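Box 4.2: Ligand-aware structure prediction
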Amino acid sequence: MRILGIETSCDETAAAIVTDGPRILSNIVDSQIDRHRRFGGVVPEVASREHLTRIVRVVERAIDEAGGPGVDAVAVTRGPGLLGALLVGLQFAKGYALARGLPWVGINHLEGHLCAAALGDVPPQYPYIALLVSGGHTQLYLVERFGDYTLLGGTRDDAAGEAFDKVAKMLELGYPGGQAIERAAADGDQEAIRLPRGLDRRDSDDFSFSGLKTAARSYLATESLDVSRRADFCASFQEAICDVLTKKAVRVAKRHRVRDVVLAGGVAANGRLRELLSGRAAAAGIRAVLPERGLCTDNAAMIAAAGWFRAREGGWSDWTTTARSRLPLGQAPQ
Ligand code: KG4
Ligand code: ZN
């Protein structure tokens, strides 16, 4: 079965074709970052309009690169995300499916992120722990089988990606911030500045990044940073986030006696987070499953992969299915 995946929940217009496996045949991501950069973040109305002008071409490219037509089903992100942006992808997908008499399925974007791990050479084994870290979410799940997600912990304030983005803004490093901080941190000393680890207590599986953000703001208000000190600051800030994320993920994985811990979401592209999670998991006899970096940030291959799993369970959507800006993982897909 060949599934056309479509993703328009934020500022990437993306389409992909995935076949049985799931295995990627094509994966096109048309980023709108250049249109939003001057505003310092994503402007929802601009995002919707950009999706409208780009989506046809992006889908055509995905189909061409997969070797031509022959799509059996359509999978599209229905939430969570920016409502206007989601609606462009969803209406396009419904129209595409209706015109060709194809089944279609609305996908939870977070389930899509988790499915990026299934596109690698060694997919995760159930049950596993998932650490989902993106611009809007920072959560730990126990995944017992496809579609069965138990939320074990989450952020009480900012998401990890949001913290990266906000501190990058304070440093005038531009948008999006995660990658910029990682780049600026490359030659820095992660031990140079001691920054707080939120909720670093044994008994809590939740996260908190607001104290770290405040500490970063106060530090930056009192110090003027040259390039080398800025590198130290970025490395120390990145370490504070990665330290607490990986410590809790491995601790939860040990407690639930799982063999695999899956890293997912845009922040999962961060090199230090990947390195620290692999090292700490290995030390605990657990395998860290790290999707390819390009599959961590928003893309449609992960949405098509989730659609492929849903198709195996016969879970198609009907025409009444709509977009939802808020859509907790684990809620019925219909
Ligand atoms: O999953 P994603 O592409 O979009 C959402 O669903 O939110 O995640 C975007 C987030 C942004 O906050 C961005 O700063 C962060 O992922 N991010 C990174 C890196 N690449 C993207 N954070 C840290 N290091 C990176 N290399
Ligand atoms: Zn995402």
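In the box above, the bound molecule is KG4. The longest strand covers residues 23-31.
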